[in-house]
Every structure is written in structure tokens, then in C-alpha cells.
Amino acid sequence: MRTSLNIPQEVLEEFDETWESQGLESRSRAVREAIQEYVERHVTLEDVEGEVVAMVVFDYEHTLVIGDLHDIQHEFQDVIETMTHTHQGEWCLESVFCRGEAARIRELTYRLRDFDAVGRANVVFLQAE
After folding, report:
1. Do residues 54 and 106 both lie within one domain?
2. Considering the domain boundaries, does residue 26 fall inside one?
3. Are 82 and 60 in the same domain?
4. pLDDT at residue 127 in the model
5. What does R_g of the chain's alpha carbons equal in angstroms?
6. Number of CB atoms found within 10 A of residue 60's CB
């Protein structure tokens, strides 16, 4: 199937440099792999159930979203055990270590992804029962 996408030029240039440096045969192949990785990550996030230990990592532009992020962190304090934070200029990187119901951690991850000022929010399950 053929499709078209609107991608900012600088993102496309970086994407091309990445797949070419990895020796992939074409942009199409790289896009297929990226889509597959996205689907697998989403399915894993949706499939995990029960009590889990997880780490949610996200980056964000500090001045645009910090108040809202503090509110969310307080809202999810039932599953957040500890956090680490570092920054470079106005961009921050946080890792949030969680323990609790997978559904609650999934909700936290989706809430973080909902902000335009959050670049990425990914979750790694360290232990799933």
C-alpha cells in the first residue's frame, strides 16, 4: 500500500541519516520498521495487566508544562515511588519509577503523552506478574 505523510523537513533529514547510517536498504524499509516498533510498544503497553513495576521516561519543555506535570505527579502518587530529573536548557528529562496496577501506570503514561510540550513518554515494565 502506498501512503503519504506530512513530516517536517528537519525530522525527515534526521530520519534519513539514521536509517542510512544503519545500512538499511530504503526509507520505506525504515518506515515499516518504525511503524512495527510503534505498534509493538503500544500493544505491550495495552497487554500488561496486574501488579507491575515500571519506569516511565519522558522529556518536556520546562516552562510550558511544569505546573501541569506537578499536578499529574500528585494525582498519581499512589503508583509513583520515586523520580529522577535532569535538564539541558529549557528541556528536562524525567524518569518516574512506579509500582502498582498496570492500568494505572498506563493511564499515567497516556496523560503525559497528551501534552504538546512533552516530546516523548515511554514505559518499560521491569516486572510483570
Report:
1. yes
2. yes
3. yes
4. 56
5. 17
6. 24
CATH number of the domain that 113 lies in?
Answer: 3.30.70.1150
Q: How confident is the model at residue 115 (pLDDT cuts 50, 70, 90)?
A: very high
Number of domains in the chain: 2
Residue 114 CB contacts under 8 Å (≥ 6 apart), including other chains: none
Tens-digit pLDDT profile for residues 59-68: 999 989 989 9
Q: Identify whether residues 64 and 85 lie together within a single domain.
A: yes
Helix (H/G/I), strand (E/B), else coil: 59: strand
Residue whose grid cell is 506537578: 70
Provide the domain limits for residue 32.
9-44
Higher pLDDT pick, 128 / 66:
66
In the sheet with 80-88, reading across from the earlier edge strand, the strands are 80-88, 91-101, 51-61, 118-128
- What CA–CA distance (Å, rounded) separates 65 from 50? 30
Side-chain half-sphere CA neighbours of 43 within 13 A: 6
Q: Is residue 1 part of a domain?
A: no
pTM for this model (two decimals): 0.72
The cell for 123 is: 514505559
